[in-house]
Write a structure and sequence with these properties.
The complex is a heterodimer of chains A (626) and B (528).
Chain A (H helix, E strand, L loop, with lengths): L9 H13 L5 H28 L8 E11 L2 E9 L1 H24 L6 H20 L3 H19 L6 H32 L4 H11 L5 H17 L8 H4 L5 H10 L4 H8 L1 H6 L1 H24 L3 H21 L3 H28 L12 H4 L1 H14 L7 H15 L5 H26 L13 H16 L14 H6 L15 H24 L4 H7 L1 H7 L4 H19 L6 H18 L7 H21 L1
Antiparallel strand pairs in A: 1-2
Helix pairs in contact in A: 1-2, 1-4, 2-3, 2-4, 3-4, 3-10, 3-15, 3-20, 4-5, 5-6, 6-8, 8-11, 8-13, 10-15, 13-14, 13-19, 13-24, 14-15, 14-18, 14-19, 15-17, 15-18, 15-20, 17-19, 17-20, 18-19, 18-22, 19-22
Chain B lengths: L1 H19 L5 H21 L2 H4 L7 E8 L4 E7 L1 H24 L4 H20 L3 H10 L1 H11 L4 H34 L6 H4 L6 H18 L8 H8 L2 H26 L1 H28 L3 H20 L4 H32 L15 H14 L6 H16 L1 H26 L14 H19 L2 H21 L27 H10 L1
Antiparallel strand pairs in B: 1-2
The chains are: A mainly alpha (626), B mainly alpha (528).
Chain lengths: 626, 528
């Protein structure tokens, strides 16, 4: 058993340390080498380990373990710094290091002239390192360490351009909202530890399936608490509001957050603790329902946005919604497959979208772009590839293979039903509609803003690689009607259970055809509305509800009114701590008696004698009364 | 004897610093630095001894008659608990000498005299096993601290120092009455009149008496800790004290309250503590949430940090009344991590005041571009304050909450909300000071070498505590076990994982035979 996989997170972390400590004195080329090179080493190791892992023929549930040191061991509580590699972790490691590395390379050019160049690379590497710890951790406490590290990095990177107060507000929003989910999660950790006396994921899952029966209250509560953490990080309803604002960071950051790290952490957590969710059918169904609600909400919001990155942000929320649907209906492998493909095309879309924005001098509004098809053909082609994959264009894109699996399972898996399918298919239509709205508005029509220059090779090469993967990445896993290639699910079957179907497989081709038609009709509609400019478009976008969608279903406003304002109000009115008035009162009383009695000590002898006499008289009267 | 030396070195160092300041202003600084350094080295040298003598209760136990007529001994003893606290004391002591190097320029000798005498009082508190001696040191640390605030403090220092003195003095007196009553009850029942802690342990008395006496002890400890609603001295004292004063207040003085709870309040009065536990936990939760809320509202940087202390010390009392090893280790870790990380925040505040000459965070902003190193350091400690995993504070809060969850689910869940509120106020520190557009066009110097050394050493310690906390657990475990054992022998509730046992009522109280009425005994004796 090779144990050196434990150093995979080490290299990005080392890179972070070097850049954070010596970054400001380092020549730029060295900073680039450290900033990108060390993650490349991790990527290489992941490749080698992956090949070794697949060829080692591990049995089902097989994994490699390595313990670095004992972290905490006291009073019956033990947690180690130890890693566990199984198929699920391997896939995540691969996506994180691979996509992360491409993003880093791209950033070398993208951030080239920024004054915070080394700071940027330090944070990015910390981000990648934390995410790797998260997916490799063998116990929930170490996973939580990575989990919070990811949260911290998102905060640092979203607010990277710190001089703009809005960026900082977005960063804090991301941190606080995800922290709300995290707090639910850590209470879940307490509960799991109390129930089983360990936080080791593997032991927990084994003991849970032995000790808890399906639907037992403790199982439901702990699954619910973990789900709380997952929806916070994965920006699902009702904690989705931080992600659209998170595009305040530089575009490579968005690519990293949306594709390789952060938002997929929730998907990973649910997949990792799938036994627990299987023991809590109510919560398991809830996962799918939340996914369906989110994918529709975010889809509608994406339709109405003007800001290129905001459209992509809503589209991420929506696509993660699809993953949640897959996890919720028990199609674990389909969910993870969509995660991988999504990572490719979403990173691609953010990077090529970022290139557009950068070269148009920070122009975000898609209505002020146009005609870029001819002005920057390379970016156009890659963006088109990503868009096609996002819209699940039949047969030729990877997105088709991953998403159509989910659509089919949302109906046919044992937890699926017609409603989930309808929500997903409506979502699919919306997805291709808003995607090609973007494509047509940005790249077709007449040019409104001219690019300052063309992207260099450091940007186009990563884009090309991701574009190719967005198209052919799906060939590792074919849907049933198209052939019998199941490389991906065969690998993953060692870690996650296979989906259980309750409908006949014969229906599947029909469903494939329906979703293909839906996807194409979405594109056609986009063509009619935004390229042909049929009059309907104007009317559709002027309805009042469009404004409601545009504002993200007013959830920001709702939270502002429900939580932010009351808290600020309470803080403001009691800024000086009303409890302190008790002390002031004491001081005041003392002072009052001091002021009122001290005039009696005035040196006037007759007053003293008078007081003395009155006193004696009073005392005598009192005594004689008895 | 080595324990006495620890105190004597500090006391004589203080006197020397005062005397030598006539000739040279550098000498007091160097002398103080050396005195604390020697103590630190001696203490470091004691690490590891506890493992060799695992069968012994105390690593070092020194006892010498002081006033034998009244049963007062010079009884000092060291176990894992006090060892860790001594390490913290000398580490922060060293830092407080270093950070005053440039800040204090008036009456340098007297300043260092007070600094070292406060430290020696604190060391005495952590070592005394004689209640009279304990009270002696408890007062000893108070007076020089009062002078530190009153002489070298900021604008509103007189008010703050009075408030600090009155609060702690009054509450200390209440404790002293309790000590005396305990002394007489023990003497009347068993015949030996002694202040010795080990003999006073397990003194039989009526539950109501023990409750009253415990409340007397709690008065002192809860004011020091502090617990809402007894916390009002703290924001004033912390914000008006000079940087070294704030550091010692937050890092050490508050910890004497925590130490008192673990060493005295719970072991001396186990049954009463069990009854008090729900109240104690409620106070803890209240402190966590209320302190966080107040911290969020402040615009005075030092006041803000002071309120975060109120919030963080809520975890201490919460854990103390959870009565299990996990929570106690969490409390121990919180004592160390909070002392270091909050001290660090006060140091940063001090450095900002030195450069900007004000403490109003509304007038700061955008300082990252001018002082990136300080910004990075502040970032680490804001993260420590919100409990980021990988730093010591996370270990502490996680263990406290986890231990509390074992004994009281509701309190643990409510306290967890503090994690969210901590995020809100910690990020506000970064936002207001280091982010956004710079205000004004000040030329500010980033950290110099001395400041970098201070900051670097604190960061190393806090990260070490976060990633390698096991040595701390090992040192503290036998000592904490003592307290928990005393508590659990009275009403044994096994900590198990099964769900049924959790609903057992932990308060199975024994009725103790009332051998004598304490108040009568008190009068009888004082009548002689």
């Amino acid at each position: 058993m090779p144990t050196y996989f434990a150093i995979i997170p080490g290299f990005p972390l080392l890179s972070f340390l070097l850049l954070a400590l010596f970054g400001n004195k380092m020549p730029k080329n060295l900073a680039i080498a450290i900033g990108t090179g060390l993650t490349a080493v991790s990527l290489l190791i992941t490749f080698v380990i992956g090949i070794e892992f697949i060829s080692s023929g591990l049995p089902e549930g097989g994994a490699w373990n390595v313990t670095l040191w004992h972290w905490i061991n006291t009073g019956g509580f033990a947690a180690d710094i130890s890693f566990r590699l199984d198929a699920l972790s391997l896939i995540f490691c691969f996506v994180i290091t691979f996509v992360g590395f491409l993003i880093l390379v791209y950033s070398v050019e993208f951030m080239g002239n920024d004054e915070g160049f080394t700071r940027f690379f330090a944070y990015m590497n910390l981000f990648i390192g934390s995410m790797l710890i998260l997916v490799l951790a063998d116990n929930l406490l170490l996973l939580y360490l990575g989990w919070e590290g990811v949260g911290l990095c998102s905060y640092l990177l979203i607010g990277f351009w710190y001089k703009e107060p809005a960026n900082d507000a977005a960063a804090r929003k991301a941190f606080v909202i995800t922290r709300i989910g995290d707090t639910a999660m850590i209470i879940g950790l307490f509960l799991l530890f109390l129930s089983f006396g360990t936080l080791n994921i593997n032991d927990l899952m084994q003991q849970a399936s032995v000790k808890w029966v399906a639907g037992s209250p403790l199982a439901v509560i702990s699954a619910l608490l973990l789900l709380g953490g997952a929806i916070g990080k994965s920006a699902q309803f009702p904690l989705q509001t931080w992600l659209p604002d998170a595009m305040a960071g530089p575009s490579p950051v968005s690519a990293l957050i949306h594709a390789a790290t952060m938002v997929t952490a929730g998907v990973y957590l649910i997949a990792r603790t799938h036994v627990l969710f299987a023991l809590a059918p109510v919560v398991h169904t809830l996962v799918a329902v939340i996914g369906a609600i989110t994918l529709l909400m975010a889809g509608f919001s994406a339709l109405t946005q003007h800001d290129l990155k905001r459209i992509l942000a809503y589209s991420t929320i929506s696509q993660i919604g699809y993953m949640f649907v897959a996890l919720g209906v028990g199609a674990w492998q389909a969910g993870i497959f969509h995660f991988m493909i999504h990572a490719f095309f979403k990173a691609l879309l953010f990077l090529s979208g970022g290139a557009v924005i950068l070269l148009l001098q920070e122009e975000h509004d898609i209505f002020k772009m146009g005609g870029l098809r001819k002005l920057m053909p390379a970016v156009f082609i890659t963006f088109l590839a990503g868009s096609a994959s996002l819209s699940a264009l039949p047969l030729i894109t990877a997105g088709f293979y991953s998403k159509d699996q989910i659509l089919w399972y949302s109906f046919s898996a044992d937890n699926g039903n017609l409603w989930l399918w309808i929500a997903s298919i409506v979502g699919a239509f919306i997805t291709s509609l808003y995607t090609f709205r973007m494509v047509f508005l940005v790249f077709y029509g007449e040019a409104k803003t001219l690019p300052s220059r063309l992207p260099g090779r450091l940007m186009t090469v990563p884009l090309t690689i991701l574009a190719v993967l967005s198209l052919i990445g799906g060939f590792v896993e074919f849907a049933q009607p198209f052939g019998h290639v199941h490389l991906f699910s065969r690998l993953l079957s060692k870690a996650l259970p296979a989906v259980v179907l309750i409908r006949s497989e014969n229906w599947e081709p029909l469903f494939e055809v329906i979703s293909a038609i839906i996807s194409l009709s979405g594109i056609y509609f986009a063509y009619l509305l935004f390229l042909k400019k049929v009059p309907l478009a104007e009317k559709l976008y002027n309805v009042r509800i469009a404004e409601f969608f545009f504002k993200g279903w007013q959830s920001d406003w709702l939270y502002e009114v429900l939580f932010v304002k009351p808290y600020k109000w309470v803080a403001e009115i009691n800024k000086n701590d009303f409890m302190d008035y008790f002390n002031r009162l004491l001081a005041w009383i003392t002072l009052f008696f001091n002021r009122s009695l001290s005039p009696t000590q005035n040196g006037k002898l007759r007053l003293y004698i008078m007081a003395l006499t009155i006193g004696i008289v009073l005392i005598l009267t009192y005594m004689m009364r008895q | 004897m080595i324990l006495v030396y620890l105190i004597i070195i500090l006391l004589t160092g203080g006197v020397l610093a005062w005397i030598t300041s006539r000739w040279n202003r550098m000498l007091p600084r160097i002398i103080s630095f050396l005195a604390v350094l020697i103590d630190l080295l001696i203490t470091i040298n004691l690490i590891g001894k506890e493992r060799i003598d695992a069968h012994k209760q105390w690593i070092i136990d020194y006892s010498q008659a002081w006033i034998p007529h009244f049963g007062i001994n010079l009884h000092l003893a060291l176990d894992g608990l006090s060892l860790l606290l001594l390490l913290l004391t000398f580490f922060l002591g060293l830092l407080s000498v270093l950070i005053s190097w440039k800040e204090i320029n008036e009456r340098v000798g007297f300043f260092h005299f007070n600094l070292l005498w406060t430290l020696s009082g604190i060391v005495g508190v952590f070592l005394s096993l004689d209640l009279f001696l304990f009270y002696f040191f408890w007062e000893l640390m108070l007076v020089p601290m009062y002078l530190l605030i009153a002489i070298w403090g900021h604008e509103n220092r007189t008010y703050a120092s009075y408030k600090f003195f009155l609060y702690t003095q009054a509450s200390g007196l209440i404790m002293f009455i309790s000590i005396l009553v305990l002394y007489f009850i023990h003497g009347a029942n068993g015949g030996t009149y002694t202040f010795d802690y080990l003999q006073l342990l397990g003194t039989p008395m009526a539950i109501s008496t023990s409750m009253i006496l415990m409340l007397g002890f709690l008065a002192a400890f809860l004011v020091k800790l502090p617990v809402v609603p007894l916390h009002n001295w703290l924001p004033d004292a912390h914000s008006e004290a000079p940087t070294a004063g704030s550091l010692i207040l937050a890092g050490l003085l508050l910890k004497t309250g925590a130490y008192g709870l673990i060493r005295f309040a719970v072991p001396l009065f186990p049954e009463a503590s069990a009854i008090f536990a729900p109240v104690g936990m409620t106070l803890g939760v209240l402190g966590i949430l209320y302190g966080a809320k107040l911290a969020f509202a402040q615009t005075d940087l030092k006041r803000l940090i002071a309120y975060t202390s109120v919030s963080h010390m809520g975890f201490v009392i919460l854990g103390v009344y959870a009565f299990n090893q996990i929570a106690y280790q969490g409390v121990m870790m919180q004592i160390l991590a909070h002392g270091i990380s909050t001290g660090a925040l006060f140091i940063i505040a001090g450095q900002l005041i030195e450069r900007l000459h004000h403490r109003d965070i509304d007038q700061m902003g955008g300082l990252w571009s001018k002082m990136p190193v300080m910004g990075g350091v502040a970032l680490v400690f804001s993260m420590a304050s919100l409990g980021l995993p990988g730093l010591g504070n996370f270990i502490a809060e996680f263990l406290v909450l986890s231990g509390t969850f074992n004994s009281n689910v509701l309190m643990a869940c409510l306290a967890s909300l503090g994690l969210i509120l901590a995020t809100v106020y910690s990020l506000r520190i970064m936002q207001k000071i280091f982010y956004c557009q710079p205000k004004g066009n000040l030329e500010l110097a980033d950290l110099n070498l001395r400041e970098k050394i201070v900051a670097g050493s604190i960061i190393i310690v806090i990260v070490f505590l976060g990633l390698f906390p096991q040595p701390v657990f090992n040192i503290a475990e036998p000592a904490l076990d003592k307290t928990i054992k005393i508590k659990s022998e009275q009403n044994y509730v096994p900590l198990t994982n099964s769900d049924n046992n959790r609903n057992l009522n932990p308060l199975i109280l024994k009725d103790f035979e009332i051998k004598s009425d304490p108040i009568k005994v008190l009068f009888k004796y004082s009548g002689k």
